[in-house]
Amino acid sequence: MTIQILPPQLANQIAAGEVVERPASVIKELVENSLDAGATRVDIEIEKGGSKLIKIHDNGSGIPKDELALALSRHATSKLSTLDDLDAILSFGFRGEALASISSVSRLTLTSRTEEQSEAWQAYAEGSDMAVKVIPAAHPVGSTVEAVDLFFNTPARRRFLKSDKTEFTHIDEWLKRIALVRSEIHFTLKNNGKTVRNYRPAKTSDQYLQRLAQISGKKFAQQAIEINCEHDDLKLSGYIQSPYFESPASDTQYFYVNGRLVRDRLVNHAVRQAFAEHVTGAQASYVLMLDLDPHQVDVNVHPAKHEVRFHQSRYIHDYILQVLQSALAQVGQALPAQETH
Ligand code: ADP
Ligand code: MG
After folding, report:
1. 16 and 147: one domain?
2. Closest ligand 1 atom, residue 34 Cα
3. Distance 175 CA to ligand 2 centre (A)
4. What is the CATH number of the domain that holds 13?
5. In-domain check, residue 1
6. What whole-number distance in Å separates Cα of residue 116 and Cα of residue 178?
7. What range does the domain containing 106 cover?
8. Tens digit of each residue's pLDDT (9 = 90 or more) over 41-69
9. Predicted confidence band at 338 (pLDDT cuts at 50, 70, 90)?
10. Domain count of the chain?
11. Is the CB of 63 under 6 A from ligand 1?
């Protein structure tokens, strides 16, 4: 074989292997784009577990007509311009790969309008060179991305999709995670024509507790202990379910660093240790947000972005442990004895 540059569609399909695993990962990428664009409302619509249709509508900034084609190209991003930017990344996206990847493995249209434009435009890529067509459309300020027939042209991938119900569950689970940290955003989810989730904007702690009840159950919300502690450049906030009750703990265990859900051994250890010291055998349920200087943490470890690397890991560990220890100690003392069992 002679050496050849891969046609764009093929190159994008290969790249899609990393970011587009299943409908839930498509939704993750698209909704994160909406949030990066400053949307306050995001409406998600799916059919057949997302394999037939994924549609994301937002009221964000929109994309100017002359940038629509770029938005669909690989390595095109408005969020990063130098390698240094990577050290302090706060937006979700930055690789400039999602739209190009999704577009290469589905029938994707991107419709958008900015505040400055009086009309909307729709873009889609065609053929193996993924040439972008732009046509007039009707749309309010914001964007809609529609991905139809996911993996229709990559049958091997399509075979890996599970039942519609399983794919729905993955989507629903991902939406819970984002809805708990981006509580100011109104999210809706429509499944096969029926609205199944409606998370109204939660701007007060009462409203937040309502959202928490919707997502993690009434018990967690009723027994929630608020965490809110700032120390130097670290802030830990959120809720933990009081372990001083016999009722079952919720299975919610979400920890966010600068707005991203992370799965981190160090963090888990600190949380578990804090709970273990107060109530033996108690299962920790929590929604916690750690905010710190983005220079103090690397998020660029993996495309799925679940891992992070803290520069001062011991310090972070001890901080989390101490904040939770003291919150649990306070509540434990305030409780009358009979409520502890
Ligand atoms: P990335 O998010 O890594 O930059 P994407 O392929 O996901 O890459 O998106 C490419 C670009 O398209 C983004 O940088 C952004 O400028 C624009 N874009 C994508 N989705 C939206 C949206 N919903 N609203 C506004 N701009 C968007
Ligand atoms: Mg993106």
Report:
1. yes
2. 23
3. 16
4. 3.30.565.10
5. no
6. 30
7. 8-199
8. 999 999 999 999 999 999 999 999 999 99
9. very low
10. 2
11. yes
